[in-house]
Amino acid sequence: VDASRIEQYRKGLKILKKGLTYLNHANVGPLHDDVVSAVRQTLMSQAEQASLAQIKWFEILDQARHECASFLRTTADSIAILPNTSTGIIRALSSLPLVSGDEVVYLEGEFPALYWPLMGLKRLKAKLVAVRANKHEDLTEAVLSRINSRTRLVALSWVDFFTGARVDIKALESEKKRRGFHLLVDGMQAVGCLPVQLSELPIDFMAVHGAKWLMAPVGVGLLYASEEARKLTPDFHGWYGHEIDWSAFLRRDTPLYADARKFETGSPPFSLINGLTSAVSNLSHFGSELIWNRVNRFTTEIIRCLREMEVDILTPTESEKRAGIVTFKHAKVNEIFAQLQKRSIIVSVREGAIRVSPHFWNTGEEIQRFIEVVRNVVKGA
Ligand SMILES: Cc1ncc(COP(=O)(O)O)c(C=O)c1O
User: If you measure from the C-alpha of residue 375 to the centroid of ligand 1, how many angstroms do you get, rounded to a whole number?
Assistant: First the structure.
């Protein structure tokens, strides 16, 4: 049954019609035809109706919050729709009550989308504490070891963009309760790949962009804010963060929303948001367990085969310590990449390593195609 549903879904992926073996979701996800149609439909409403379509656009925004909330097992009032991870991170950071001397724990190899906004906290004279963990160390343990009574914020990627290492978010819960710090998560490389039950996790804010594992258009994402986080207020309010009285824009008594909409800013890309709803609805249709089972099966198989070759695997081998990314180094990285490209097998080179990132809709045969090329180059065939 699953195989035939996936076969059906693959028919709507234009990237396959281009003859590509696409194993690069950690870079950007391909769009399904359903998503393109949803985007087009909303764009057409602006073309054909302009201001007359506006009421519909607000329904689209609301639908997106509900669809994302249900996929992430949380409530719609905890979801703000924002353009990307960075905007979510910046809105979250601008809401946290940090003061001089507060410690902020982050990961040394953090992706720049989180790193640069965090560096902005220096203006508050916050102390930034970088966690270094080599590949033989447990990332979660390393984070826990740097938390102390002065820690007011722990900010990290759930899944590292480079090594694919996954932090055990749940394991931070008791320390978070004890110390009372806030937890800000960049969920970009996790959401859409791993099953996420936000109601069970000690996350205050999680920023996600839909363009990778959610297979949504570039330029639309979300910020999750827990019940506690929704009590905070961003330092600069956006007009979409307040209730809008469409008949009296000059009213100054319109309240800031109590829910996560308070973190929104101004007019959003409604067409892309409709695409996000469609993409998430497609993933929900398969279910996050099926998605992760397949991704895990593929990445486990890749790791198993790579271990038989003389390559340096940078990703933790245990499945609970990784997600959809497998990264490895080898003296012949450039040659491996060139040979993959020659066969239209799409992966990334990051920091001199090959990063492969299959999704649930890929097939075992596609994975074998990738492995075969790597094996041939490594063995000098
Ligand atoms: C961990 C992580 N965070 C964020 C991003 C992207 O940030 P943004 O959505 O702000 O463009 C990426 C990749 O592009 C990433 O790998």
Answer: 31
- Tell me, what's the pLDDT at 381? 62
- Is 361's C-beta closer than 6 angstroms to any atom of ligand 1? no
Dihedral angle, C-alpha 118, 120, 122, 125, nearest 10 °: -100
Residue 86 Cβ contacting ligand 1 at under 6 Å: yes
Tell me, in angstroms, the distance from the centre of ligand 1 to residue 39's CA.
Answer: 22
Q: Kindly state if the Cβ of 160 falls inside 6 Å of ligand 1.
A: no
Q: What is the DSSP string of 182-225?
A: EEEEE-TTTBTTB---GGGS--SEEEEETTSTT---TT-EEEEE
Angle at 229 between CA 76 and CA 149, to 5 degrees: 150
Q: What is the distance in A from the centroid of ligand 1 to the CA of 91?
A: 15
Confidence of residue 197 (pLDDT cuts 50, 70, 90): very high
**Residue 46 pLDDT > 80:** yes
Determine the residue type at 33. Answer: D
Ligand 1, residue 161: give the atom nearest the CA: 16
- Could you tell me if the CB of 161 is within 6 A of ligand 1? yes
Q: Bridge partners of 107?
A: 131
Angstrom distance (rounded) from CA 38 to CA 327: 34
Residue type, 340: L
- Ramachandran region, residue 380 (left: φ > 0; alpha: ψ -120 to 50; beta: rest): left
Which of ligand 1's atoms lies nearest the C-alpha of 28? 14
pLDDT given at position 133: 87
Cα separation, 381 vs 332, whole angstroms: 13
The upper half-sphere exposure of residue 207, i.e. CA atoms within 13 Å in the direction of its Cβ, equals: 23
Average pLDDT on 286-298 reads 98
Cα–Cα dist 156/256, whole Å: 28
